[in-house]
Amino acid sequence: MDTNHKKALQRNHKALCDELELGADLEANLVHCGLFSEEMLDEIKAEKSRKQRIQKMLKALRRRGPDAFDKFLSCIHELYPWLEQKLTESYQDEVNNRAPSSADLNLQRKVDLMVHNTFGKKKKFCKDDKQEISNFLLMHCRQNPRQDYDGSHSDHPEQEILRKIFFMLTSENINGVSTAPLSVPEEISLDTIAIEISRLSEKIRSLEKQLDYYKTIEIGDTTKSLEEIVNLAATNELKLKASQEELTQLQERLSQKDLTINENLERIQNLYSKIEELNLKCTQLKQKESLPQMRARTRPIELQKAPFQIYGLVHDDVVGKDNSPRFPSLRHQTNISQQHTEVKFKSERFPNGIGVRASNSHRPSKKY
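^ that's the sequence the OP posted. Answer follows.
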């Protein structure tokens, strides 16, 4: 399919998408004339909406050979005769205006120069700016009238110029690959041209950002091949994956350490509780052990007092009966015992008798 066929399909793309229906009759015609196989039609019909199916079919039609346009016209001849007529007329118009004249090229240069000189690097155009561009185009058309327009274009020279500018902006990218839209508006205004210019400006800024990115990453030469860049990206992806796996392992080890620390803290708390219980038991045992010792200390004193108490009781009982002074009183016996203890203590302290006063044992005892 040549350029004129493609442009004819582009000009009528909207009408084809709105009115065509990929039904059984059209499918049979497409298979019969050899444009598409049944497998290709099944792939086209896999799209969700009717419009998407027609768009995919028209896109594939461009690559079905040099006679694909004529075969497609024969397929829609009986089903959609009005569409066949539109496509035929559009093709004839493209054939008549196929070769761009030097005037068209000069117009493109003049428009570019006028926009650059007037607006500079301005990215958005206001209403007055668009009106100024429109006035420039109208003035150019009046000064350089074209004699080769047919009757359909003679009344609208501005639309023809805007259409050509639109195709200039959307026909090719920097690699020469066609990026023209599948549908062309029936009436092109300066707003449409401004939108396309803004789109190209955004694309230029995006390419500049990509160049800056290639400069910032560790690529010494920005002219590296695509294969080298893809290999570098794959290597970086593997490194990133390895780093993520290592991070996951470290997180698991950290979680295990946290569990171990918590278990040790619980053990320490249990040990503290056991230590407190043992201390309490030790205190209780000490208290139990001290009670017999206290009792053992107090018992000899009680045993020493017991004979005197018994003697006093017996003496009081005897004296109470006959008032006999045969037995000394309990108080007298206590005094004698204390004197004897004092003499014994002094004799042990002063064995040579120095400083020892006469003990009470050498004094004459009283007779009762």
